[in-house]
Amino acid sequence: MHPNGLGRKKVLAELKKIREQDQQYNDGKILCSMCTKPHPVAEKAYRLFLSSNLGDPGLFPGSVKLEKEVISQLATLFHGQNCVGYLVSGGTEANLMALLAARNMAQLSQPEVVLPESAHFSFTKICNLLNLKPVYAGLDSSFKVDSSSVEKCISKNTLAIVGTAGTAELGAVDPIKELSYIALKYNVWLHVDAAFGGLVIPFLENANYKFDFTLDSVKSMTVDPHKMGMAAIPAGGIIFKDGKALNFIKTETPYLTDKYQYTFAGTRTGAAAASAWAVLQSLGLDGFKKVVGKCMKTTRLLADGLSEAGFKLVVEPTLNIVAFRSDKSTKQLAEKLWENGWFVSYVPRYDCIRIVVMPHVNKQHAMAVLNDAVKLDKGN
Ligand code: 0PR
Is residue 195 lining ligand 1, measured as CB closer than 6 Å? Predict the structure, then answer.
């Protein structure tokens, strides 16, 4: 720290310079991210609620109202009634809260959770923290979890099954309805990780994925406004079908304005609730349909272009994620794309390049990365 302080002007000038070291979504070169530039209304809303703390609800009833409304609007999107939930730091914490509730409710001495091989790595952290044994179920040829494999993984120690509605690597939507039957048969909790897909799938045209609260066994869902919800980070969402779940995750907070807290984090910014709320309210269902429609159109264009150029798609895209391979070294191509300023992911599990077509990625960006991929692959 500087002994006399540098003063606001100098500090801000310095910060502006440092910020230039970060990549900017607007450049359209960030193709490996499930986050995006916050919607302009989200930015404004965030600033308005910068000092609000959802960790002490009695002081910030306005912010609490926004959080409740965001959860209720998301729950409605998934046909839930009387659901409860919170806005947390992200999908990781949302998934953690779901499995914490399931674990504490089941009270098994050697608890296990059945996870698809494609489950997000947050579950590895969560199993570690909660002392759960992960039991991995295999995938089918389109990279969705194979429900017969899930059933084989069930034992007397199973407390929950996890299904993903929009996997992080390929955007695959697990057969949640089939998982729901299995969960019902063995009386275990079904958690749906729709961190990414939750704000894509309901707005797809001609798609009919069943993954919501109308399925009996779905007890909790993760859906993140800071991904396709275009809210400012940190805005993850956890929704429980039944308020009773909260009894299993409550902690006494005797001297606070509320006597119990249900989230893992104590201090939580109300700005996240405001920014998520602002986007949901301002875009509405039609606005989301347009955003998702545009992302899907660009996804299709990119996928078709890559196929025509001789690349192999790992799978036909279901959501706004394209995964492809080269006949030559895919890993090297990914490295070359990075050297040329295209921030794509290389996914070792499938030996593929993954491009997430978020709202900041337009048709021109897609065509430009396609052209560069073709050029760079030739020299590979
Ligand atoms: N569940 C799913 C299905 C996810 O895709 C993710 C994150 C999570 C849970 C965890 O969410 P949080 O990261 O909010 O805790 N998916 C992205 C991924 O792993 C996270 C991400 C976002 C990574 C932006 C990079 C990046 O630039 O790809």
Answer: yes
**Cα separation, 24 vs 37, whole angstroms:** 8
Check pLDDT > 80 for residue 82: yes
DSSP secondary structure string for all residues of 308-324: HTT-EESS--SSSEEEE
Any atom of ligand 1 within 6 Å of the Cβ of 221: no
How many CB atoms are located within 10 Å of the residue 276 CB?
32
For the Cβ of 96 lying below 6 angstroms from any atom of ligand 1, the answer is: no
Does the beta carbon of 157 sit less than 6 angstroms from any atom of ligand 1? no
Q: Is-contact 179 190, C-beta < 8 A? A: yes
User: Ligand 1: which residue has its CA nearest to atom 16?
Assistant: 168
Determine the atom of ligand 1 nearest the C-alpha atom of 94.
15
- pTM reported for the whole predicted model: 0.98
DSSP conformation class of 297: H
CA distances from residue 256 to 50, 247, 328 in whole angstroms, order as listed: 20, 18, 60
DSSP 174-231: --HHHHHHHHHHHT-EEEEE-TTGGGTGGG-TT-----STTSTTEEEEE--TTTTT-P
* pLDDT confidence tier of residue 379, bands split at 50, 70 and 90: confident
Contact 360, 37 (CB under 8 A): yes
* Ligand 1 atom showing the smallest separation from residue 32 Cα: 27
Under the banding of pLDDT at 50, 70 and 90, the label for residue 206 is: confident
Average pLDDT taken over every residue of the chain: 97
Largest CA distance in the chain: 67
Beta strand 260-261 pairing with 218-222:
unpaired
The residue whose CB lies within 8 Å of the most ligand 1 atoms, and thus the one to mutate among 30, 99, 122, 346, is 122
**CA 266 – ligand 1 centroid, Å:** 22
